[in-house]
Design goal:
The protein is of the alpha/beta class. It has helices at 10-22, 33-43, 59-69, 84-93, 105-135, 146-159, 175-184, 203-211, 228-231, 247-259, 285-290, 296-302, 319-334, 343-351, 357-371, 379-385, and strands spanning 2-6, 26-30, 47-51, 53-54, 57-58, 74-79, 97-100, 137-138, 141-142, 165-168, 193-197, 236-240, 261-262, 271-272, 276-281, 305-308, 340-341, 376-377. It has three domains: 2-117, 3-Layer(aba) Sandwich (Rossmann fold), CATH 3.40.50.2300; 136-308, P-loop containing nucleotide triphosphate hydrolases (Rossmann fold, 3-Layer(aba) Sandwich), CATH 3.40.50.300; 312-385, Helicase, Ruva Protein, domain 3. The longest helix is centred in the N-terminal third of the chain and has 31 residues, at 105-135.
Length: 404
């Protein structure tokens, strides 16, 4: 990462140059706006560290013009005389940090760690965006249909924040895959992603599973157990089938989200919670509230950013793309030499209703792969797996007029 330092105090300038080099970046240090302008063209920095008051100009204005020329530049503003007005002006110019001199080494190191992590994340997002345009993939999600591109854009936008997300969609539409993609594109990507299915655990055990328990808190609790919230610390926790959680536990979950603390079952100490929460359900949330399956107050806490995933029937133009993606995955694992599709096989897949959505498609592709002799998945194999598909009828022969 190239860093341009613009500071007229020689001692501070040399100290910054040395620190930036220690942080693993490439520094260039100058003392005036004029020198900095020439360095922009020659050095082309990604990050600027600028003093507010320079001998021949204003550091914030210089950064503003430098950022107009290259909008992805980050800026750190230094000042010996902090004021609310200059801080606001710096933020409006797009700087990421406003630091008061004299600087402390650990303070600057934290700023650079944050900058480096953010630029790495943005680079990965750009790579994934390019892959989406070329291959129809955003992380593990596949699709080029308009409805999926809309969902991809929502995922990309919300991933940058820590806002709670509620993902809705029928079973098999890829809600967990979407949650994993949000995590991968977020600032929490290096921390754990933990998925918990609220419908797969006995209601009497969910509280212990989520929040953990202390030794002796109930029969069989022979040792302390860390819950899923603690396991996901610093990362992302997916609560799948959130409407299957009992009402009493929903109240406790709401308290955790509001206070950002939890208490293990049988415990006496409140523990801080640093988790990005993503929830998912295959029910319509409004219906779940009416039926008493979801508390309205919890719903509003979870539904800060909603994402609705379409059914596979609503994105038929993605079926061939998905089928080929799954075939490639299976071929990499099994290596049986099934390398292509008969075009008619894909047409059959596209004409099916897919009540089980993407999960059902993947299972059908796997079975078709196993049943295939040779290198091509033939229509008769697919037809055998999907008996409900309406067969195209042969064209009727034209009636011949009878001669009288």
């Amino acid at each position: 990462m190239k860093v341009l330092i613009v500071e007229d105090d020689v001692a501070i300038r040399k100290g910054l140059e040395s620190a930036v080099r220690e942080f693993g970046s490439e520094p260039k240090a100058v003392g005036t706006v004029g020198e900095a302008g020439r360095a922009l063209d020659q050095f082309d920095p990604e990050v600027l560290i600028v003093d507010v008051h320079l001998p021949d100009g204003d550091g914030i204005e210089f950064f503003r013009s430098a950022r107009e020329a290259r909008p992805d530049r980050d800026g750190i503003v230094l000042t010996g005389q902090a004021s609310l007005d200059s801080a606001i002006e710096a933020l409006r110019a797009g700087v990421s940090d406003y630091l008061l001199k004299p600087l402390r080494g650990p303070q600057l190191e934290v700023v650079f760690q944050r900058l480096s992590a953010r630029r790495t994340l943005e680079s990965e997002v750009d790579t994934l965006r390019d892959a989406l345009q070329e291959t129809g993939r955003l992380g593990e999600l596949i699709g080029k249909s308009p409805v999926m591109l809309k969902a991809f854009e929502a995922i990309r936008r919300v991933a940058r924040s820590n806002a709670p997300v509620l993902i809705t969609g029928q079973s098999g539409t890829g809600k967990e895959v979407a949650a994993r993609t949000i995590h991968r594109l977020s600032r929490r990507a290096a921390a754990p992603f933990v998925a918990f299915n609220c419908g797969a655990i006995s209601p009497t055990l969910i509280e212990s599973e989520l929040f953990g328990h202390e030794r002796g808190s109930f029969t069989g609790a022979d040792k302390r157990r860390v819950g899923y919230f603690e396991e996901a610390s610093g990362g992302t926790l997916l609560l799948d089938e959130i409407t299957e959680m009992g009402s009493e536990l929903q109240v406790k979950l709401l308290r955790v989200l509001e206070a950002k603390t939890l208490r293990r079952v049988g415990g006496t100490q409140d523990l801080r919670v640093d988790v990005r929460l993503v929830s998912a359900t295959n029910r319509d949330p409004a219906d779940a509230i009416k039926q008493g399956k979801l508390r309205e107050d919890l719903y509003y806490r979870l539904n800060v950013f909603p994402i609705a995933l379409p059914t596979l029937a609503e994105r038929r133009e993605d079926i061939a793309l998905l089928a080929e993606h799954f075939r490639r995955q299976i071929e990499e694992q099994e290596k049986n030499g099934v390398t292509t599709w008969d075009p008619a096989s894909l047409k059959i897949l596209e004409s099916y209703s897919w009540p089980g959505n993407v999960r059902e498609l993947r299972n059908v592709v796997h079975r078709a792969y196993v049943m295939t002799e040779g290198d091509t998945i033939r229509p008769e194999v697919v037809e055998e797996l999907l008996p409900q598909v309406a067969r195209p009828r042969p064209a009727a022969e034209p009636k011949r007029s009878r001669k009288r």
